[in-house]
Amino acid sequence: MTKHIAMWSGPRNISTAMMRSFENRSDTFVSDEPFYGYYLKNTDIDHPGRKGVLRSMETDWYTVSKTITGLPPNEEKVWYQKHMAQHNLPGVDLSWTRLVTNCFLIRDPKEVIISYHKKYEVNRAELLGYPQQVELYRMLTEGDCIEPAIVDAQDILMDPKDILSKLCSTLGIPFRDEMLLWPAGPRDTDGVWAKHWYSNVESSTGFKPYEEKYEELPHELEGIYEECLVYYDTLHRKRIY
Predict the structure, then answer these.
(1) Where are the domains of the chain?
(2) Which of 150, 16, 180, 20 is nearest to 84 (CA)?
């Protein structure tokens, strides 16, 4: 039986490095943002390569959700899915998440906002996925109190082996040392948007050590930062460390 792992992140995180880490396992198949096409089709967000993304992938929410809860191509033991929480637009049916093992990847919103702002306008928290992460977390933990695993990017970069070992234990799969190093370069499993977003990870061969950022947050973004910080803190205090 395949273990379906849905890792919910936001932009400007180490989500692609995490995908590389899991893909380097011999028992794992990975999917790169399967709802991205749906997200672009149903918003006016003009990301680079938008038309190519829409041509390259399924854009129907229901069809995608059925696919990613089925069997992976070669019936691998683990199917790791990199998801962006902001792709969960208002009104989408998230009942499929009950069929997979969910986990969350978070990052200090100051670092996310500063990084994202260099490329795109940041005019609302929803672009960064923090509200959607907490909304999904609350849905998953309501009633039956299933606690999804939560990991913070800083913790991973400071001690990859320790945090990944704890994450794998929580997910019910064995940790493997090959998750710590991977070959540089692109992957066939990368989305067609990789050329616009993945230059850093394509040159990487493992997790880069954490470096504290000393850049100042633009004054006009302080309100969004404060809003995101509330959501971030909600998950951060429940993280694996």
Answers:
(1) 3-236
(2) 16
User: What pTM, to 2 d.p., does this model score?
Assistant: 0.96
> Rounded to the nearest 5°, which phi and psi values hold at 65?
-65, -35
CA pair distance 171, 168, nearest whole angstrom: 5
Query: Can you tell me whether residue 62 is helix, strand or coil?
Result: helix
CA distance 195 to 57: 16
**Burial classification of residue 93, based on how many CB atoms lie within 10 Å of its CB (0-12 exposed, 13-18 middle, 19 or more buried):** exposed
d(CA 236, CA 112): 15
pLDDT tens per residue across span 114-172: 999 988 889 999 999 999 999 999 999 997 768 999 999 999 999 999 999 999 999 99
Please say whether the beta carbons of 199 and 175 come within 8 A: no
**How many Cβ atoms sit within 10 Å of the Cβ of residue 2?**
17
- pLDDT at position 145 is 67
Which two three-digit tokens encode residue 37?
């096409």
Please name the CATH architecture into which domain 3-236 falls. Answer: 3-Layer(aba) Sandwich (3.40)
Helix, coil or strand: residue 8: strand
Three-state DSSP class for 90? coil
Kindly state the helix (H) or strand (E) to which residue 152 belongs, with its residue range.
strand 149-152
Are 106 and 149 a contacting pair, CB within 8 Å?
A: no
What are the φ/ψ torsions at residue 218 (nearest 5 degrees)? -55, 140
Q: What percentage of the chain carries pLDDT values higher than 90?
A: 91
CA distance 166 to 132: 25
Q: What is the pLDDT of residues 192-215, one digit of tens each?
A: 999 988 999 999 999 999 999 889
Vertex 115 angle, CA 222 and 211, to 5°: 105
